[in-house]
Amino acid sequence: MINLKHFFILFFTVCLFFSCKENQESETTVKQDLLIDLNKLNNEIIQFQEIVTKSKSQKEIVDQFKKSRLAYKKVEWAIEYFIPDAARFMNGPALDEMEMEENKSFEPHGFQVMEELIYPEYNAASSKKDLVREIKIFKSNIKQMQNTFEVITISDNYVLDAMQQNVFRVITLGITGFDSPILQSSITEIHQSLICVPNALEKINAKSKTVADLKKLIQKAQKYCNENNDFNKFNRAVFITQYLNPISEKIKVFQKEENIKMVKRSSPLKPTAITLFDKDIFDVNGFVLSDQYNFTPDKAVLGEKLFYDTNLSKNNDRSCATCHNPEKAFTDGLKTNVSLTGSNLARNTPTLTYASLQNAQFWDMRQLDLEKQSVDVIQNKDEMHGSMDDIHAKILLNNDYIKLFKKAYPKTLKPEPWQIQNAIASYVRSLNSFDSRFDDYMRGNKNSLNNQEIEGMNLFMGKAKCATCHFTPLFNGTVPPNYSKSEHEVIGTPQDAAGKKLSTDQGRYIYNKMPQLIGAFKTPTVRNAAVTAPYMHNGVFKTLEEVVSFYNKGGGQGLGYEVENQTLPFDKLNLTVKEEQNLVAFMKTLTDKKYQ
């Protein structure tokens, strides 16, 4: 007969064993959790496919689509960070992906394509086949994700870096509606995008007070979103400054506490960045094609002298500054400038401020870097008609230049032609101030913007859809948070002020004969827009008010032009007069101090 005391000892020992075993088995790694969440996403997509196949109601289809998106948002941080090329076909824009070098295009896939098929109306007769096809492709992509994450190592420093970029993605692409342009479900998805941050950091140190603080902060952010879930009325200024920026700061605090090394990578975003609005967050060297072109202050000093030197032109009467006036934020204030022969040039002179934070130059994006841009202008017979060989020869005879070149390029015996280009480009790379009133506000000075300007910011990043092309905080077309490519847009710009016909300038199509590129132009920065009028590639609009009115009407298609490949949404924005005024007021806050 078993002693009762021994029985209870044995019973509790067995219970303790299984309890400990259960606790051990419940402890998972970041990678394991990711694979679990990928499987949950797959299950939601399978359910989505079943509902569509059975021709359920539009409401059921849309509801399951939203559930699938929510499941995706939990794994988006990893897919976008580790496999960005594949991510483009899971939740990228519903626009063709183009390979310019090969003149090839690839049709889009993923959530945004599905969104267009099911909303605002779903017609099974015309859309079911395409929708099922998209779902099958999505399932195939999930399988690819699972296979990839099964074999890669996810170290702590990469987790931290990915989480920081994930917060930046919410700021730039999430709350702006970039990845949910029709349903505008971004606000309700924020919690799923952010909850991965403390969950992942908890795997590194579950006892961290910073992780506990992050959880509380994200709970408050979710509460704010739940109480303010109207996309058009959502206050992004408040949400960024009170929630998203503090979350970014906490991630950096945790990294320092745990002594986790920063990721070394070639990227415009510096790994030291605390928030997306740090003054020195962007590294211009992230946009150069090789290390020898890297920026230095000495190169910029040399480049400034070259920039103002009329000897770079054939007739010694025109410098870079002739068309890029520093007092006008390096524009000229003209619709289009005048050629050397006295005729009007075809295109407006764009600002050089923040031009270095792009992956392509000129309105038609025909050059990839500033070095080639400068040569293109200098040698253009209508602009400067200079000769790089002649310029190089003159410099070799100029002792002042010799000294500056020696200081800028100490490893070379004498000035080389490529260094002339690089020096001018380096000067242009020095023209990024990030000291506007907007920047001041985002760094904590709440008195920098008034209520009208804050309302304008919320319109810019919300209802007016400006920030889906002019991405915060560069406000140009360089796509965050990787910043590896710069976008063009087809907006249907008028030919002249009368606005009766479409511009005949074919833009990027001139150099890349792809129908999608007819009338496509680089998305320029809105920074310093208040002092860089007139606007558009042909200078057709004299004021920001005219620009906003054009977009409010739906661009070229909204005006009745035939622009089949227009990338700008052609539906009216339905902005009120007051909202248009607020939008212009906000854009004026993007002016650097030196131009105010």
TrEMBL record:
> What are the alphabetically sorted keywords of the record?
Coiled coil, Heme, Iron, Metal-binding, Oxidoreductase, Peroxidase, Signal
The UniProt entry lists the main location of this chain as other
What Gene Ontology molecular function terms does this protein carry?
Answer: cytochrome-c peroxidase activity; electron transfer activity; heme binding; metal ion binding
User: What InterPro entries is this protein classified in?
Assistant: Cyt_c-like_dom, Cyt_c-like_dom_sf, Cytochrome_c_Peroxidase/MauG, Di-haem_cyt_c_peroxidsae, Imelysin_sf
Compartment(s) of residence: Cell envelope
Q: Could you tell me which residue ranges the Cytochrome c domain spans?
A: 298-432, 451-591
* GO terms for cellular component: cell envelope
* Sections of the chain in a coiled coil: 31-58
Q: What is this protein identified as? A: Cytochrome C peroxidase
UniProt organism field: Flavobacterium reichenbachii
